[in-house]
Amino acid sequence: MTTDLQAIIEEIHATLSPRTGEGKAADYIPELANVDPKKFGIAVIDLEGRVSKVGDCDEPFSIQSISKVFTLTLALGKHGETTWNRVGREPSGSAFNSIVQLEHENGKPRNPFINAGAIAISDLVMSGHTPREAIGEIVRFVQYLADDAGIAIDPAVARSETATGFRNFALANFMKSFGKLTHPVDHVLGVYFHQCALAMSCVQLARAGLFLAANGKNPLSGHTVVSSQRARRINALMLTCGHYDGSGDFAYHVGLPGKSGVGGGILAVAPGRASVAVWSPGLNANGNSLIGSIALEMLAAKTGWSIFGAPHA
Ligand code: GLN
Is the CB of 168 under 6 A from ligand 1? Predict the structure, then answer.
């Protein structure tokens, strides 16, 4: 089997480029609708730090829900296992912005990757901080993970989502009514909207996720981010919950822990091998990148990286 990753992703990019524009870019956050739907980038970084990249892989895009992996990591660092008093660890089987489960489950979100769960995690990250400090801490943490001080929030996206985030206000107010948020709703959502508005390229995102492929230690920077046990557990959550009600389908087709965002990005982790980021704005019915998911399926097939079996056994 070829391990020429650069050749593999160039082939995938060439095969799928004619299909970019399929799916539907998110427009409920108006600023995201301004992005060219034909953008398409892939970046793969292996544990030796070798970067393979193709297409629009150096252009920053809105990482949206992919940020939930980084804030969960931050919350676990601050609060340890007590984090799980606030959110569960089960797949939701519902849309990312669903409110129905919250009432049955008394305001405790199913997992940290659906919107309600991520809002609860933002509340945890805030403890002891003003919203501005918490946002600064999240940005610095992501810069540290990627070892890149150039990563920043896109203020236009943050403003756009604040102006139209009615569903997230509903979720947060609902949780607040159950006593499940410590801080004022508008403060928590201020943090949440800004973390979602982080702009990163595929290369930056793959670097930021590399610690999850390498037992918790970023092999490029030498930073130990989390223990190997915690890295495994975050990967497990990404596999079971990272694509909302499309998580089972992603596991079936790709077989890697992954986290999607409505900006059209997906971060995927091949444990012991590499960190991968793809970007294509058109989304499927579950709000996950359509072409990005197919690109990852092709990559997993060509490399044999699925966590569920030996390559071409
Ligand atoms: N900021 C988006 C929202 O709250 C994130 C959703 C997503 O990426 N799936 O709706």
Answer: yes
The CA distance from 161 to 115, in Å, is 13
The whole-number pLDDT of residue 312 equals 55
Q: Which residues of 20-41 are buried (b: 16+ CB within 10 A; e: fewer)?
A: bbebebbeebebbeebebebbb
Which two three-digit tokens encode residue 167? 């569903």
* Both structure tokens of 21: 């524009």
The alpha carbon of 51 and the centre of ligand 1 are apart by a number of angstroms equal to: 28
| Catalytic residue (one of 39, 244, 260, 280) | 244
Of 167, 159, 188, which is closest to residue 62 (Cα–Cα)? 159
Q: Which residue matches tokens 């909207």?
A: 193
SS3 127: coil
Inter-residue contact 61 to 279 (CB < 8 Å): yes
Q: Please give the Cα distance from 158 to 223 (Å, whole number).
A: 29
Query: 8-17, pLDDT tens digit by residue?
Result: 999 999 999 9
Structural domains in the chain plus CATH codes: 5-63+200-303 (3.40.710.10), 65-198 (3.40.710.10)
> What tokens appear for 205 in the block?
């995102």
Does the annotation mark 28 as catalytic? no
pLDDT digits (tens, 9 = 90+) for 77-123: 999 999 999 999 999 988 888 899 898 889 999 999 999 999 999 99
Query: Residue 283 in contact with residue 264, Cβ under 8 Å?
Result: yes
In the chain, the amino acid numbered 238 is: M
* Atom number of ligand 1 nearest to Cα 96: 9
Which two tokens mark 175? 């949780």
